[in-house]
TrEMBL record, chains A, B, C, D:
UniProt-recorded name of the protein: Pyrophosphate--fructose 6-phosphate 1-phosphotransferase
Gene: pfkA1
A single cellular component GO annotation: 6-phosphofructokinase complex
GO molecular function: 6-phosphofructokinase activity; AMP binding; ATP binding; diphosphate-fructose-6-phosphate 1-phosphotransferase activity; fructose-6-phosphate binding; identical protein binding; metal ion binding; monosaccharide binding
Enzyme Commission (EC) number: 2.7.1.90
Pathway assigned in UniProt: Carbohydrate degradation; glycolysis; D-glyceraldehyde 3-phosphate and glycerone phosphate from D-glucose: step 3/4
Binding site for diphosphate: G10
Species of origin: Streptomyces cacaoi
């Protein structure tokens, strides 16, 4: 049995840990061979491969990024994509495929399995933790940890100078990173994409915090939006993935707070720092277990399945479930955090 | 409503975060007052209190240890323990009690509720993660993170000098810290209390690792024991909690490996470094949510309940469940990790 | 003897460590008493004091910020500033003053000593490390460490996605943080205020890095400026200290790189994360030694002196030297780092 | 010009950073070629080489350990050592040699240059910081940082349980790591090899600390010895370098404190964790500059020289100076730290 492996979408700490586990167990227990495809579906479409054996994954457990590279290439947006994939699977004698990625990557894997009989197993990956099929995804804990450490450091500055500090964290459609890091860092207010925020309410929290002789820290997800009327945030340009680039809710909010409260406000934009570097112990554990169970799904010929975390167990769910529903922050969970606002 | 709070047993990162959440929500949402008792049940027995209001918990989210102090005093081992507890609850006008602790502390709370009608709510705490009623306990992730960082650092030394490095981590009766940190750190073998280890097998893993031109790192839980015949580890003394002190399975194992394989072996004993200091983001989140839900249980007059994590939800379980069963590493989970041994 | 202490200017990890050392040695060895003035010279002008004894400094060694608060109030910009200072020194029976601060704060101390006979001793503080009188200042190592950790994390993202990552670090007039963190983080190019940069050269480094199949990381000090023609960076507003706010050389440069090379570029602006939080071991050591020697200078009645680091020794220099000359990155030191550009 | 490079002695964070700088500048600026010798002088004696070019050093800046491996082989303890070295230098067409190591390694380089005309340049390396020719050596700051982080974590446990915590750190002959980490971590007493300690005095510090309602942390260098009478520490065995293995001053002292004060005491032995893993930003900077200046010394044909740090400058000193004198903690520096004892 030769198993192909590819990683798609944005990078995420733990991708290499997944592959190391897949290869170590696949080679050591089941005697499989592996072929890596470079840059997600692109490598499979264009027949670009990467050696993937025990030596290749040595030392990769603590390494961020992905040794295979990544892209957002979608084979279904190309006329002969499926045909080329089938040809290359045959050419490289690849019997089954493990696709590690987010909604898009796994959506392709689901269609390839369901409609074209390609034998795929999926491993979910999203730094934003917004897949409903799994309790957590690897990378998320690392992002939260990085953001929390930054918030920890900002507290002393906020207090020494009695300034408002706004921290913009990742999260376009779901506020998980903002919610977890904001709670863990002791933020005085957390703004998430799921609920439009009221700038006046934010300012009243800021003001009440100052009255208690402490300085406020506002954590805002990059996708959070104010109530009523649009921010002028879009700069019109699109990034390489075709997304309109939103920039600067943090910067925008800092200026609003300054002008409405008369208090100085500064912004920190953590950006890609949140998604790079070595995974936390938690993410290495989760990624490793995902890998061990993904190769078991291959052995069980459980095509079209995806590994997922439920409580402390790794289970399998249909790949189609992975892309069904965005997991967003429930109102009652956000309300729970509201205890600490102001 | 006045709520008493106490922390018992060994310390654990996150205790202060629990109390901060309890107080912030209790004061802000429900208008409760709080009284802290110093050093666990001792403070309640002896009427020693600590001020516990919003000011007292300010800045405590990232602080390790417990602002109330802790002890292992057990009121049931004293003739008039229950009487004195009732007297002091009356004296300090405390209507309900939140007990934060492990098996012993929660066992007392369960009996006080069930047999004497004291209105208790419990919050589970064990750095070893060995309570079956909850998926995880706070403090555990911090311990695993500290141990993993140490293992990360040892890799380069192990490889530069081709030495065996033995890392002894916490875990007297359960191997969770060893298992998680060993997997996350890329250990070449993990030894846990749940399964007696075979020194010859450990030596064969060590030797095969050297043959692959890499140096082995052995993670051993302090409670792990070799097969057949006892180690001479017990030094006969007992600690202040009456436990016979086991010391040095790490040191003992390093010497055995040296003498059997002819390879140099060194030991690192992390000790209390694993249970002190600031909690990780994960533990702050878990501890905070435990606190928020514990005060809700008080409001709901759900006496005799304990908060617990199930998946991503905080639920309530009977306090009696907390102490029923030690949660140990299941054989199949240990077997899963065995892929990486050798 | 009663000694007054104040901290002025921007905050800096290690301020509390200085004060702890001053008080511990002053009380323990010399039997002095201490009075803290709140928010730098403002507290002395307005007679606002803070208790400063052994209990007040307990636990402050690892804490960022300053327990006294800080401001940029300058007594010489007020008509009766000197008179009020003298009155308050008399009123609070303060015999000598330890002023901890940067150019501005120490400049005031120098004039007060030289022109008005106020008995001052200075401790230098600048996160930017730009004081020529001392090899290093505390806080700088912490800032470099925080920036380096961020750069470390960005490497994997840069490589996985083959993007340019621009990191904007502190340094308005001197490029020390950029130089040290850029070298320690393995940046592919470092831009400092001391030398105007050529955007085309930066782009050629970026391009050559991509040709070697690696992705570039560009570290830019906030005060760095391009050659020829001004950036449109100034937003016209001024901050509370009267500085015109420059914003966004990082963001500006990322856009230039994108448009000139066709490669995606993203920016991380670390901001105040660099100057907050717990000091590194190095900064705690340096701050502690500065404090121990500052109180010795008081005992020696060495008024008008400032402590400074020379090699591994703490020495005393005239306060006036502190403000004489900005210590900038020498061309040959920058040239040394140039080996790694591109 | 072909330059040979080797690393000898115990490992130390920063060795790879030195070599990366040597190679990047040597290739990029001077057009040199490089040959690595495996495991210090052993590789040169036995003709075992390692490829050392720009690709080989890529990504090595943040990596602990040494890509060349290390050993303590001494060519002068072999009959034909010098002859074999000369033969191998000729065989591999190596014109000059950069030796990175401690006293032993540099002592060999000094003799080879002075007595046999081998063209050597040295880079000093000692985690213990005990070379008198340089202000600091790389690796030392990393060790101090690791030890300080451990002490930080121990504070909360010490206080929550009112136990004595003893931390044993590296330092056989010099107490630099103990002194710096003890000061930075806020230890209540620091014991170094340079001055025999009085157990009764240590116990009186411990007791007085408890009286102030705080728990003591004792930092002890592995080479520290009590006054009067020997500890029974030596276990009689010798390690691979012929040193008699001292073990357990920390464990020994904890037991003494327990029996004399009646207070529980626990020990943490950090061991090799202190010398492994990624170098701090400071050590990467120092190691990189050492490397850049070492290759300049080769270009200048300054044979028999060694690079050293003086203040903020990298200078050259004769290799012979490196081994002349052990740099130990001066009594007045230790006395300075004594302010914080008890």
């Amino acid at each position: 049995m030769r198993v192909g492996v590819l990683t798609g979408g944005g990078d995420c700490p733990g991708l290499n840990a997944v592959m190391r586990a897949v290869v170590r167990k696949g080679v050591g227990r089941y005697g499989y061979d592996f072929t890596g495809f470079r840059d997600g579906w692109r490598g499979l479409l264009e027949g670009e491969t990467v050696r993937l054996d025990v030596a290749a994954v040595r030392g990769m457990l603590p390494r961020g990024g992905t040794l295979l590279g990544s892209s957002r290439t979608n084979p279904f947006s190309q006329d002969d994509g499926v045909r080329r994939i089938r040809e290359n699977l045959a050419k490289y004698e690849v019997d089954a495929l493990i696709a590690i990625g987010g909604e898009d990557t796994l959506g392709v894997a689901a269609r390839l399995t369901d409609e074209y009989g390609v034998r795929c197993v999926g491993v979910p990956k999203t730094i934003d933790n917004d897949l409903s099929a799994t309790d957590y995804t690897f990378g998320f804990n690392t992002a939260v940890t990085v953001a929390t450490e930054a918030i920890d450091r900002l507290h002393t500055t906020a207090e020494s100078h009695m300034r408002v500090l706004v921290v913009e964290v990742m999260g376009r459609h779901a506020g998980w990173i903002a919610l977890h890091s904001g709670l863990a860092g002791g933020a005085n207010c957390i703004l998430i994409p799921e609920q439009r925020f009221d700038v006046d309410e934010v300012c009243s929290w800021v003001t009440s915090r100052f009255r208690a002789s402490y300085a406020p820290i506002v954590v805002v997800a990059e996708g959070a939006m104010p109530k009523g009327g649009e921010m002028v945030l879009k700069d019109g340009s699109t990034d390489s993935f075709g997304h309109v680039r939103l920039s600067g809710v943090g910067e925008w909010l800092a200026k609003e707070i300054e002008s409405r409260t008369g208090k100085e406000a500064r912004t920190t934009v953590l950006g890609h720092v949140q998604r790079g570097g070595t995974p936390t112990a938690y993410d290495r554990w989760l990624a490793t277990r995902f890998g061990l169970h993904a190769i078991d799904a291959v052995r069980d010929e459980d095509w079209g399945s995806m590994v997922a975390l439920r409580g402390t167990d790794i289970v399998r769910v249909p790949l189609s479930q992975a892309t069904e529903k965005l997991k967003t922050v429930a109102p009652e969970l956000y309300e729970e955090a509201g205890v600490f606002f102001g």
